Amino acid sequence: MTTINAFSMETVQGASDLSFHGSVITCQIDAAESATMVAGEAVLVTDNAGGVPKVEQLGADTDGAFGFIVRNMKDASFVAGDRCEVAMQGSVLYMTAGAAIARGAQVEYDVSDVKVITAAGTNPAVGWALDKAAADGDLVRVFITTPVAA
Questions:
Q1: What number of other Cβ atoms are within 10 A of residue 135's Cβ?
Q2: Among 78, 88, 89, 105, which residue carries the largest CB count within 10 Å?
Q3: What are the φ/ψ torsions at residue 96 (nearest 5 degrees)?
Q4: Which residue range(s) make up the domain with 103?
């Protein structure tokens, strides 16, 4: 998917691709979340009753992600109370690489940079790179494999 605007079409972090498969659900940023969240950012589901699932920022690299915020035509960032779409297992999302990544490599999420890196086996893997990243900052499609049962 590309972003449509009056000037150019470009691929951006958090845009979904191959969206005819996978799971994308509507969520809401938890009222207690103080940070502004961005498309492509990993989220945790919070334990609240009623309504759509509420989500918050992933706290640490060692946490298992519930899913990833999907960019939409109107918003690229989200604050407490905003509705958002969250891509989960089987979805393909454009994500920013934190370093070179081989095509087909399993990737993990880096909370501090909001990027994916090649999985080292210490943090939960979040998916598989469908594209090769030559360097930090490249956009790659990631086949998402979260959430994964413990």
A1: 10
A2: 78
A3: -90, 130
A4: 92-144
pLDDT of residue 18: 59
pTM for this prediction: 0.85
Do 129 and 107 touch, CB atoms closer than 8 A? yes
In a domain, 8, yes or no: no
Q: Where are the beta strands (DSSP E) in 13-120?
A: 16-17, 23-29, 37-38, 42-45, 54-57, 67-70, 77-78, 83-88, 92-96, 106-110, 115-118
pLDDT at 2: 47
**Is 131 a domain residue?**
yes
Residue at 137 is within a domain: yes
In order of 12, 53, 85, 141, the CA distances from 130 in angstroms are 16, 29, 22, 5
pLDDT in tens, 65-105: 999 999 988 888 999 999 999 999 999 999 999 999 999 99
Domain count within the chain? 2
As to burial, measured by CB atoms within 10 angstroms (0-12 exposed, 13-18 middle, 19+ buried), residue 81 is exposed
Nearest-angstrom CA–CA distance, 76 and 44: 18
Angle, alpha carbons 124-127-131 (nearest 5°): 135
